[in-house]
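Methods — Computational structure assignment.
A single polypeptide chain was analysed. Its primary sequence is given first, followed by the predicted tertiary structure written as structure tokens.
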Amino acid sequence: MFVGRTEKAERADRAERYGRGGSFSALSAFSAISALSALACARIEPPPGGPPDRAPPRLIAVTPDSFATLRGFDNDVEFQFDEVVSEGGTPNQGQG
């Protein structure tokens, strides 16, 4: 099969431009993988687990007893709930 001179010149230019057959495809593959990786990281989804807990914790016990009268009591009061209650970083003193 005879290939015309202009077609040969065109192939030579293409090979020179794209690095003799493999660099263009490697660069394209790298770009595609990079783009897909970036898109995979940007997904915003709710956290895994069950449905949100909408029921507030219930108070089970208070130490010392909530109706006890203790003169000079200077200790901590302990509240026990039916589930774990997060204390947070700083106390909010009932401000919400």
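Note: The chain has two helices and two strands.
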